[in-house]
Amino acid sequence: MMTLKDTVKRFDDFTALDGVNLEIPKGTAFGLLGSNGAGKSTILRLFSGIYAPESGQVLINGESVYDNVSAKQKVFFINDETIQFSSFNLTELKNFYKQFYPNFSEELFERLENAIQLPRKKKLSAFSKGMKRQAIVIIGIACCTPYLLLDEAFDGLDPTMRIIVKRMLVDAMCERELTVVISSHNLKEINEMCDTAALLHQGKIIFNRQLDSLKGTVHKIQAAFADTQREFTKEDFKEIPEILHFSRTQSIYHIIAKGEEADIRAALEPFHPIVADMIPLTLEEIFIYELEVLGYDSQVFA
Amino acid sequence: MTVRFLHNFPARNMLRVVWQNRKMALVMSILMILSGPLIIGARMNELLYRNSINYNDASELYLLIGAVCLVAAVLMGMFCAICSFTETHKKARVDMLYSLPLTGTQRFFTDYLGGAFMYILPYLITVILGWIIIGIGCPFINPIRDETLWSVVGETVRFYAMGSVGLFVLMLFYYTLSVLITVCCGTLFESICTNILLNGLIPGTAAAFLFLIDNHTDMSFDYLWHILGFFSPVGGLIYCAYLIVENNAVVPAYLRDSYWDTLRGQEIQSHNLMPNYFRWILVTVLLTIILLTAAWRLYIRRKAEHVGKPFVYVGVYYLTITLLIMLLLCLLELEIIGPVLLITSIVYFVCEVIRKRGFKRFWLSVVSYVVTVVMTVGFFWFTGITGCFGRISYVPAAANIKSVKVEFLQKPRMHLEFNDPAVISKLVEFHKTIISRAKTDSDGCRVLNQKLHDDFPYEVHYNANTYDTENPYYAFPVHVGSAPDSSQTAYHSDYNYFTAPFQFRLTYYTKTGTVIYREPRCNADEMCELENILRSSDLFRQTVVSNLNHLMKLELNNEFNTQYNTLVKSNSSKTKSNTLQFTIHNGTAVQTRTISAKDDNIEKLCNAYAHDLERMSEEERMTAPLYCSFETTDSLYKVYESYTETISLLETWGFHRFSVPERYSFIDAKNPNNAVAENNNLLAIRIYAPEQWSTDSLKYPNSSLSQYNNTYVKGDTQSLHYAYEDQIPLFEYNPLSLKAYYPELYALLDAAQKEYISEAPCYCIFVNGVRYIVPPAHNDLVTAVVSKHNFYGANHLNEYFEAEY
């Protein structure tokens, strides 16, 4: 299990993580969502032992990560840049990582490499961005660490290669209960890959839930009421547990609310709805509406 | 922990550092590997052809190329450090390297050893190649005359072994310092600039500061490279260059006998070389360990996110900038405050703008500049008031001294090294005495001789603007208050006595191996005290006699005294002369006689001189008039009237006491030495009035003339002003005619002494630039000359005499 306990991370005057608590169980495909500068990459760098927290704890299987070889051997981190590998060719890069990760699997590497057919002798500086990404991903998987951290990992991959890489990751998860933590702005990918996700904003976790459960608890309601003369406001629906968004188009009301479907319907019943359609939200919509509540609103630019 | 460290330590990762920087490593390796064979090859070539007319001139070029390659390769150590620690300045490398399962310590030593391996390996190869060349070359060297093979190549082998180890240590020192600086910086620009600046500034500022002390105290830094070697790698490189020169091993002989000897300015002190070398090695290794520890600790404290900051540890920046300001202040010597502040502030603020990448919080830069300047000036001030932290007045205890070397910086350029504890004690006491005389007065200023200071009739106020508080010897002029004619600036009554014109060097070799150099100044009386101490030892007499003997024999044999020429000429037939052209002097008068060398005349002269030296009483030392002197380029041997045995021997060789016409033969206009008389047919005479007649309250002939001199000891007192002067036309070109035409002047010259000691004020007469002192008993002769020839100022003199007598 990967754990953050009351973790604070500052960069000079800027607080990147402000007392974050997070647990990522083993075998999970975990997605980190958030606005720019929310602290997603910081969390990944804390888990990979690059950063040391100012306070709190960063643990892997109960061990502190920073400057701890045994904990760091359980993690492989792929960041969003590839320039650092330019001076290697694929074989050199494999050999470089192999000496640090005792569980490195040559057989797995061969299998994965055969699947994507990258040139072995060519310098990575001559690779395209997507090819470099493929190279480091297959090395990361071949290191056979229990935890794999990917920061914008699918950036630069073509659609076919995305599928291949995702399959590789899924296979690894199935075969050896690999825990994958993915940070991405591409919510569709998170949606496809992850079973759990956390949303970060300004160094704090807004939510951390299983995606299925998350989707089940946020609803978009389109409703029309019998009393057409009355103009309903958000305050009229106090019984609804949490309203993220409220708007009206002519006589149709659009409500984004958190809570159980039955509870929401019960809360609407006193107002005699003529129509009350409950539409499931996409992850992207949840992301937008959650952040809108926190003032991170695309309308501010409009 | 060690086991765990080693277990996790990926040695191959070290090679990764080399592999990733292979282009630079290749260039450096080529330079390095070329250097050893070229330098050693040039040396072996010189040994092979040293007595052959087919000497290969290209050796010099090979040596130069080798030295340039070596220095370039050594200096590239800085880039090895920067390239090995890429994660300190390349953001892209941080994630890759910090996320590896390594501790900070493992990561640091991986990088450190990788860079060191890349840096040192080519050096080890070139050293081995050098040994191979020595091994191949040795069998072809032909010993000549009394040489053995080892005596020819031994010096080279010894140097090469010492130099190899020394340079190895130096390279590690330099590399480690570069690593430390790189760890403290967060960008490539700052890493390179700070490395270059600090490596230059540490020895540069230290040298400037030491020179400043050297210029203002009696501490000696002639052996600056000895000291600089301990300050920084570049200083160490200078020290290594010094070792090369000192050891006479690599530099071709024709170079070291001319250029290098001039550069060194003194004789080789090989007995001092080995302890210094090993001490330097030890100190450098210790410093390297300290720097490595500091770099390691700072590296593991530094955070990944610090990359990109100009300075992760801002202390290294402030150290650099403070050294820069200090260097500027040392060079400008704080004499011109306005320009000093302008220059230093411009330099400082430019550095601040670069560091901050703009002008944000610029007021902080202004504050830090003021603090830096105040701290630096404060450091200078503190150094001044503490007498260089007590080093100026420090004299080691006699019990801790193994030997003391005394060197006279003027003629005779004699150097004596005393091991006798009794003499060492006397010298230590003497040194302490002359230091204690440089006391601090109530105004916080130091004066050389308290007694003279107390006797000075004026109340002395040192002017802070003109008085150099760091230098007790230049405490003049002084402002005079509450004294007769207090509106004027006055000079002390005995300027030269007070300002101590004599300087000598004392070198203490302590039992612990340290060497302490001092160059005290002293006045003429103190010089006599020193000579009395020296004369009390057998070594002094033996050295004087030995040197005299050696010089005369060299002259007799017409031998070259440089090693190279001796070697070259060694096989040629040499005609040894059986006669010696022996010359004695008194002033400009010269007598030369041809002496047979067969009758052991040289031995006789040396023995007579030694006996006379032994017998000479202190009183005679102070008062005996000069009979004559023997002079060579570097030495001056005086024969006083009390040296009866020497004089007797000289007289048996046909020398005679110099007559007046002989002594003043230069007055003869036909004498080629007398350019003034020949060209202008004039004899220039200047007469200096005694000081006590010339205080301003009395009837000094011309109040604008200053007053100096009254105690003439056997030394070179100098005066800038004079009381009387005139030029006498020379109608006859025979010196004897002087007696006929100018009997008063002839009588005065006859009475005047080249050297004379007196407590009483004396006239001093300069004749065509040569100075003589008139004993007070002959003041009437001065009056007669001045009156008869109507010298300038003579009327005043007459008035004075009339009033006084």
Any overview of this molecule?
The complex is a heterodimer of chains A (302) and B (805). Chain A has two domains: 2-202, Rossmann fold; 218-301, Alpha-Beta Plaits. Chain A has 302 residues and is α/β, with parallel strands linked by helices. Chain A contains ten helices and 14 strands. Chain B is α+β, with helices and mostly antiparallel strands. Chain B has four domains: 2-302, no CATH class; 398-534, no CATH class; 540-561 and 575-658, no CATH class; 672-804, no CATH class. In chain B, strands 1, 2, 8, 9 and 10 form a five-stranded antiparallel beta sheet that branches. In chain B, strands 16-15-17-18 form a four-stranded antiparallel beta sheet. A three-stranded antiparallel beta sheet of chain B has the order 5-6-7, with no helix packed on it. In chain B, strand 11 and strand 12 (589-596) form a beta hairpin. In chain B, 36% of the residues are buried. Chains A and B meet through helix 2 and strand 6 of A and helix 2 and helix 6 of B.
Break the fold down into its secondary structure elements and pairings:
The complex is a heterodimer of chains A (302) and B (805).
Chain A: E1 2-11, E2 14-24, E3 29-34, H1 40-47, E4 55-60, E5 63-64, H2 69-72, E6 75-78, H3 90-98, H4 106-116, H5 129-142, E7 147-151, H6 159-176, E8 179-183, H7 187-193, E9 196-201, E10 204-210, H8 211-217, E11 218-225, E12 242-249, E13 252-258, H9 261-268, E14 273-280, H10 283-293
Parallel strand pairs in A: 3-8, 3-9, 6-7, 7-8
Antiparallel strand pairs in A: 1-2, 1-4, 4-5, 9-10, 11-13, 11-14, 12-13
Helix pairs in contact in A: 4-5, 5-6
Chain B: H1 2-8, H2 11-20, H3 22-48, H4 58-75, H5 77-84, H6 91-98, H7 104-137, H8 149-184, H9 188-216, H10 224-228, H11 233-247, H12 253-264, H13 273-301, H14 314-332, H15 337-356, H16 362-385, E1 401-408, E2 415-418, H17 421-437, E3 439-440, E4 446-447, H18 450-455, E5 459-461, E6 478-481, E7 489-490, H19 495-499, E8 502-510, E9 515-518, E10 521-522, H20 524-535, H21 538-557, H22 563-569, E11 579-586, E12 589-596, H23 601-615, H24 618-623, E13 626-631, E14 636-640, H25 644-652, H26 660-663, H27 675-680, E15 682-688, E16 724-729, H28 735-741, H29 743-751, E17 763-767, E18 770-774, H30 779-788, H31 794-804
